[in-house]
Write a structure and sequence with these properties.
The structure holds 4 protein chains of 4 kinds. Chain A is α/β, with parallel strands linked by helices. Chain A contains 11 helices and 11 strands. The longest helix of chain A has 20 residues, at about 295-315. Chain A is globular and about 65 Å long. The chains are: A alpha/beta, B alpha/beta, C alpha/beta, D alpha/beta.
């Protein structure tokens, strides 16, 4: 754990941000239609790194975009020629501001699947070239439960730099990784005091207050243990009764990573796209022969809940759900995966 | 507007008389003052049923084949919801005898900010058009007004409008929540999910989103009842009502003041015609 | 994997003169799916077709694109060529590079070549998605309906009935005969019209295979070729034809006098009447608009005098239904009302009459017993001026087309006038003399020479009254002078127009009509008797102005078409129709609402595999479907496909260029 | 909104968006969807009569204007076309009795909606051309081509970055 901490104040932080935006390709939460999404910014006024968790989409699209060109192809009498797409050269350093802890953890979780049997080079490049600056939430949202899960939110190393709004009015810029430390040293031009043991305590105090603000708390290990045996539970039918299979939860989830492949062709040239898909879609598992193992929504919900809380953990040692609550907030009928797993596990 | 008591009474009565297999109403959320749809099969849960000006979601959605399994259902509908339900009845999606409709004479629901929702301010039919039992006092049909946002956008320059809509389509993540939350999108397999369509528009690009949303809104043209389930479901908070209200205003103005779902057996503006329909836009 | 053959036609210089065909072929060869691309002088010729057949076999082609003229021209030819090579004929696509490129971009050869390449690209893209289709056979009801009992309808009915096919002949008026019955003698042979027509009318009445329904109208037609259902409204005649002997006492006794439309209102008829003495059926009907008994409930004299008691004032309209397989439309023509010719004093001067009024006067059985008279004073006219092209070829007041028959009947009128009033003189103002036809030019010569009629080339500018004479002022263009003729009688050769009911009837039958109200044929040259709607045919002036020989010829052609249609027990039908994939059908039934042919019905299918619960979905009746695609475009779940024009095919075309 | 096409430095600048340019010899592509019985026959007549019109239109044959699903229009505008012309039988003349009446309603709403989201109304045009109106077809194509040339290349939602 790195303890490189810089103390500053609001103006100092703003200056830091401005400097970053000036130097690097920077992404930060930008408001559009009342919702914050991570977009490329050229000025600090455009964005709000302190955006409220309820209104912010996940950071996932910057690494696993909602749609990406996989390849280009050209068909003529000489056959089919495949070529690289012109999209996103993926070089040069990117910086993302205002990432929530849960989102950053989401990337850590996603890393597991992306470096598993097939290495997704595009994803890896994006990860390597990106520096993540997180802002720790001061207060939990109504649907948040990140602290109840299998990771240490306080000492998370999913991001490179953590910004904490200390209770003493100071702002702490804490470099979490080597990369982050180098970045702070290089780019924080104003000379602020280097943090001490005291600042560590301030950060801890802030965390304690944050932790106390959670409405939702669960006993993760118990839930995980119980769910493992509940594949045939009828409770899934009850909990999913008012689900409208709208896919929202999967699309905005920071860790859902299912996609579909489509080709689009004009004249003799075409592009192969990779776009989000969702297991909540009734046709997601429809097979060419006509069989659909998950034709009804409770089976799809079972898959979702168990994949998030059991299967991924079994395979990769991390819980797929990071407790951000995005799905519950965006759900038109407010189904929370927290309620679902608790109700099924009968806790 | 608090009809929780009446609804609870009717629900208990229906269960007692064995007229329904399940009941769809609203339940209070524990963490704030919003409400969620609530499906009950057990009469013991009836006391949880509520109905206030926070009962926003259009419950007709729960009559779609995915939910019903063709059982008898009791359902709470507001004015706009009942119009959607009326269309579903006309389009043979629901059997009238299988649904017991509790119609509410709606006084308008609130949006997230606590103000009266825009579609309620502009509501043309607050009373239920189809019901078995009515709660509240009917206030009758109101005058149709063109949506304020449409009027405002119409005054803007074409290019400005185009930029605005491009930003909408760019922000669309094509999760299809709009479609799934719409009670009238009940198709066995949506055209946007089909091979022909995905072959050409499957990608999640802004042109793909544009195609999807335009096709979707044209499929709802002359059928949309302005309940705005889609807009509430949209995780990107896109102002989807613009597309529908635009179509509605064109249809209202040009096709005998047609409004969707107001009459029994009216299938929508695209499924009938008049010899006197406007012809001047055609060369 | 698709293997497409592209065959580009030079069409002599028609295509190759503008489009760079070898370049187009090179361009086509670049397309991935194209296995062979060849150019040829005339692909539609026998060697051209042989080339296609050989290429199909040698290259194992999966579809064929012919870049040539319009598919409306040679689609059938090339489909047959495919068939002959053992390939499904519907795997053919045609790129129309003649009508859509070389002929319309003659000045821009580069652009025309580019466009031709694009059109071929589109056709190739579409053909890849073509599916094998097979003709559908539908049972046929062997009965024909003929609408209109003029000479066209009579001839068609007789010819069809002679082939032992039952015919239902529907006539609007109380008797068949139509316009020809009103004529005195016919050009160019001057046969007596009645003498040649009446035997045919009698044949109709007595033919065992003809069912004659006079005084009736078609009110509804449903179904499709070979299987139509027609509803005929038989108007109340108030006379029981089964008992009426046609003695005529009622007509004599009836006190009500009404203008006689058969005689162009020159004389009067009674409220109970037979239109003319030789009427078929020769039974009277009561004119409900004028009968005092029916209007006021008083009179009833006819009933008193009828020995058979055939008069029934309580009779009501009756609807007759028939199942038929084909329809012949023979509704005839009307004459243009010359009122807009105010400068001639039409309407003001009684002695200006129309040619059909003149025709009735010179008819031996007409109101004046065959002698033309002046309507104003009843005197026999000496100088008669005939003016042609009244309304015809007149964009300002009338219609643009030539009425075709006026030149000939005016010549006939001049001759007839000379016959009836030997000391008379005919003056004929004309624009052109159009006398193309067997014996026609000779006939006009006869009028000019034998009867010494004065033909004046020019338009009449004014007619004014001078004493009891009419002064006709016009131009004689041949001498370039204004001439004035002192006339006792002026006869206007008014234009032939479509009956005013034609558009309504066309809509009812589902056939198209032109801007004048004439029914449209399927092709102006190659399918002149068919309408675009299968099983409905056109005879006579319902399609365009015609003389009697042409009308009769067309009527017989209709009969041949009907007999051809009924030659087998079943009929082959184009397979380009809609089909519904009921897995995707959500059962909203909106397609049923928009289908113009009631071709969609519902069916119950199990909810899921092996399920006992049922759900309702739509189903196409393939015999009825005509393949318009209305249902396809409104089907939101894309459950309906139109063979030959699938979404994939059309989108393939769109993205191909 | 300015509809005149600007020409500068040998390039055409889109009237809709000045950032989009095209070579000076740019020619629009117009997707023509014609009904088989009237307009396609009419366009054939134009050819038979040798009436000349601009070569920018690419013609697709459909049985009836009611076969035209609005997404053909959207798809054309998104991919290959700078404008769309859809033509059918005159009202009352539909070979399939009522197809064009249904189509007319859809066309009006589609045109207004596309205009609302930012397409110039001249990019989506409709016409009634009968089988006898060869000259009219040529006139319509000339007008539509002229209109679309003025608007310059269509850039929005185009999949041109292929």
């Amino acid at each position: 754990m790195n303890v490189f901490i810089v103390e500053t104040d609001k103006t100092g932080l703003q200056k830091f941000y401005k400097e970053i935006i000036g130097k690097f390709e920077t992404y930060a939460p930008v408001e559009k239609f009342g919702k914050y999404d991570y977009k490329k910014v050229s000025k600090l006024d455009e964005c709000d790194p302190d955006s409220p968790i309820e209104m912010t989409m996940s950071v996932k699209p910057l690494f696993f975009p909602k749609t990406a060109k996989v390849m280009k192809f050209r068909e003529d009498n000489t056959g089919t020629t495949v070529s690289e797409t012109d999209e996103d050269p993926l070089t040069g350093q990117r910086v993302i501001l205002g990432v929530k802890h849960c989102d950053a953890r989401g990337l850590q979780v996603l890393d597991q699947v992306y470096k598993w049997d097939y290495i997704d080079t595009d994803y890896q490049k994006r990860r390597e070239n990106t520096l993540i600056i997180s802002t720790r939430c001061d207060k939990a949202g109504t649907q948040c439960f990140c602290t109840s899960l299998d990771y240490d939110v306080e000492n998370s190393d999913a991001h490179d730099i953590r910004i904490v709004n200390g209770l003493d009015g100071k702002i702490y810029i804490q470099a979490v990784t080597q990369k982050g430390e180098g970045f702070v040293k290089e780019n924080l031009s104003q000379q602020s005091a280097v943090g001490s043991q005291q600042s560590l305590e301030e950060i801890k105090k802030h965390y304690q207050l944050f932790e106390a603000s959670f409405r939702l708390k669960m006993n993760y290990s118990e839930v995980n243990a119980k769910l493992q045996k509940l594949f045939d539970s009828l409770e899934f039918e009850t909990v999913s009764s008012n689900c409208i299979s709208c896919n929202t939860c999967a699309f905005i989830c920071p860790t859902c990573h299912c996609f579909k492949i489509t080709d689009e062709k004009i004249k003799d040239t075409g592009v192969r796209y990779k776009s989000y898909d969702s297991c909540n879609n009734g046709y997601f598992t429809l097979m060419a022969g006509g069989h659909n193992p998950r034709p009804v929504k409770y089976r799809r919900w079972r898959q979702r809940a168990l994949h998030k809380f059991v299967y991924y953990k079994e395979r990769f040692g991390m819980n797929l759900c990071v407790g951000c609550g995005h799905c519950a907030i965006s759900c038109p009928v407010n189904i929370s995966i927290f309620d679902v797993v608790n109700q099924v596990a009968k806790i | 507007m608090d009809y929780s008591k009446q609804i609870q009474e009717i629900a208990s009565k229906l269960f007692a008389e064995n007229k329904i297999d399940y009941f769809v109403g609203y339940k209070q959320n524990s963490f704030d003052d919003s409400q969620v749809p609530f499906l009950i099969t057990d009469p013991a849960e009836i006391p949880k049923l509520v109905f206030t000006d926070r009962s926003v979601f259009n419950l007709a959605n729960y009559l779609k084949p995915d939910h019903t399994k063709r059982k008898r259902v009791g359902l709470v509908v507001k004015g706009c919801d009942s119009r959607a339900l009326n269309l579903m009845l006309t389009e043979s999606q629901v059997k009238r005898e299988n649904v017991y409709i509790i119609g509410i004479c709606c006084e308008g629901v609130l949006n997230e900010k606590g103000e009266k929702a825009q579609n309620c301010v502009e509501c043309v039919m607050p009373d239920p058009v189809v019901y078995d039992e009515m709660i509240g006092t009917p206030t009758g049909k109101r005058e149709y007004k063109v949506n304020v946002d449409i009027r405002e956008l119409a005054t803007k320059a074409l290019e400005e409008r185009a930029d605005y809509f491009e930003s909408i389509f760019e922000n669309c993540i094509r999760c299809n929540a709009c479609r799934h939350s719409c009670p009238l999108c009940y198709c066995a397999k949506c055209c946007l999910d089909q091979e022909t369509s995905t072959l050409y528009h499957g990608a999640n690009t802004s042109s793909g989103a544009m195609h999807a949303l335009m096709t979707w809104s044209l499929h709802l043209a002359g059928r949309c009842v302005d309940c705005r389930n889609c807009e509430k479901a949209c995780p990107s908070h896109l102002p989807l009502h613009l597309l529908h209200k635009q179509n509605e205003s064109v249809i209202y103005e040009n096709f005998q003041q047609h409004l969707a779902g107001m009459e029994k057996d009216d299938r929508g503006a695209f499924y009938k015609y008049s010899l006197s329909d406007p012809d001047d836009f055609i060369l | 994997m698709a293997r497409v053959g592209v065959f580009v036609c030079f069409c002599g210089a028609n295509i190759a003169g503008v489009v760079d065909v070898p370049a187009v072929v090179q361009e086509a060869k670049k397309i991935k799916e194209v296995k062979i691309a060849i150019e040829y002088k005339y692909v539609c010729s026998d060697p051209g077709q042989q080339m296609i057949r050989d290429a199909i076999v040698q290259n194992r082609l999966t579809s064929v694109v012919v870049a040539a003229c319009s598919p409306r021209m040679h689609e059938k030819t090339f489909r047959k060529a495919l068939s002959d090579a053992g390939m499904n004929p519907y795997l053919l696509e045609i790129a129309n590079i003649r009508e859509h490129s070389s002929w319309v971009h003659q000045k821009d050869k580069k652009a025309a070549t580019e466009k031709a390449s694009d059109l071929i690209r589109m056709a190739v893209a579409k053909s890849i998605a073509n599916e094998q289709l097979h003709e559908i056979s539908v049972p046929v009801t062997k009965r024909a309906l003929v609408i209109g009992g003029g000479i066209a309808g009579i001839q068609a009915a007789l010819d069809i009935a002679d082939a032992r096919i039952p015919v239902t002949l529907v006539e609007k008026s109380p008797s068949i005969g139509g316009r020809m019955a009103q004529l005195d003698e016919t050009f160019p042979t001057l046969d007596c019209s009645q003498c040649i027509l009446t035997p045919k009318m009698v044949d109709v009445a007595s033919h065992p295979y003809i069912e004659l329904i006079p005084y009736s109208e078609v009110i509804e037609l449903q179904g499709y070729v070979g299987n139509y259902k027609v509803k005929i409204k038989k108007k109340a005649s108030y006379v029981d034809f089964s008992t009426c002997t046609g003695c005529g006492t009622c007509t004599q006794k009836c006190p009500v006098k009404v203008p006689n439309e058969f005689n162009m209102n020159i004389d009067k008829r009674k409220a109970i009447y037979t239109p003319f003495p030789q009427a078929v059926p020769n039974k009277p009907v009561i004119d409900a608009e004028h009968c005092t008994m029916l209007l006021k409930g008083k009179c009833g004299i006819c009933a008193k005098f009828c020995e058979k008691g055939s008069i029934n004032f309580k009779m009501v309209d009756e609807v007759i239904e028939r199942e038929i397989g084909a329809v012949v439309i023979a509704t005839g023509y009307d004459l243009w009302d010359p009122k807009p010719y105010e400068e001639y004093g039409v309407g003001r001067y009684k002695d200006i009459i129309t040619s059909l009024e003149f025709e009735r006067m010179v008819s031996a059985s007409g109101p004046t017993n065959g002698v033309p008279v002046r309507p104003s004073d009843g005197k026999v006219p000496k100088n008669v001026v005939f003016i042609k092209c009244i309304g015809s070829r007149d964009e300002a007041k009338g219609i643009e087309y030539c009425s075709k028959i006026c030149c000939m009947y005016t010549a006939k009128h001049a001759i007839l006038l000379h016959h009836k009033v030997p000391d008379s003189h005919a003056y004929i103002f004309y624009m052109d003399i159009r006398a193309a036809g067997k014996g026609y030019e000779e006939f006009v010569k006869r009028a000019q020479v034998e009867t010494a009629a004065t033909y004046l080339r020019g338009r009449v500018s004014k007619i004014y009254k001078k004493g009891d004479k009419l002064m006709v002022r016009g131009e004689d263009a041949q001498i370039g002078q204004v001439v004035e003729v002192e006339a006792d009688l002026v006869v206007l050769a008014t234009a032939v127009i479509a009956p005013k009911d034609n558009p309504a009837l066309a809509r009812l039958l589902g056939v198209s009509y032109d801007k004048y109200g004439y029914m449209s044929e399927a092709h102006p040259k190659l399918r002149p008797v068919e309408t675009a709607k299968a099983g409905i045919f056109l005879a006579g002036c319902t399609q365009a102005p015609k003389d009697i020989p042409d009308t009769v010829a067309q009527a017989s052609a209709c009969a041949a078409k009907v007999c051809g249609l009924f030659a087998g027990d079943t009929m082959k039908k184009d397979p380009m129709i809609s089909t519904i994939n009921n897995e995707f059908c959500s059962g909203c039934q909106n397609c049923i609402t928009v289908c113009p042919y009631q071709a969609i019905v519902t069916e119950e299918i199990p909810l899921g595999y092996g399920s006992k619960e049922m759900r309702t979905v739509a189903k196409i009746n393939e015999g009825v479907c005509q393949g318009c695609g209305s249902c396809v475009a409104i089907c939101r779940s894309m459950a309906i496909t139109l063979a030959g024009f699938t979404d994939t095919q059309i989108i393939n075309e769109i993205v191909a260029i | 909104m300015e509809t005149e096409v600007k020409e500068a430095q040998g390039k055409i600048i889109s009237a809709e968006n000045p950032d989009i340019t095209a070579p000076a010899d740019w020619q629009p592509v117009i997707m023509g969807i014609l009904c088989n019985w009237c307009s396609y026959a009419g366009s054939d007549l134009t050819g038979t009569s040798r009436i000349q019109y601009p070569p920018n239109i690419r013609i697709i044959r459909v049985p009836c204007s009611s076969r035209v699903d609005p997404w053909f229009i959207i798809k054309s505008l998104q991919t290959t076309a700078d404008g769309v012309l859809i033509s059918g039988c005159h009202p009352g003349d539909c070979h399939y009795i009522s197809g064009n009446y249904y189509a007319r309603r859809r066309f009006l709403v589609t045109k207004k909606l596309l205009n609302f989201v930012g397409y110039h109304e001249n990019r989506i045009q409709f016409s009634w051309v009968s089988a006898a109106e060869g000259p009219k077809f040529a006139k319509v194509v000339a007008k539509v081509t002229e209109d679309i040339k003025k608007l310059g290349p269509l850039h929005r939602y185009k999949k041109e970055n292929f």
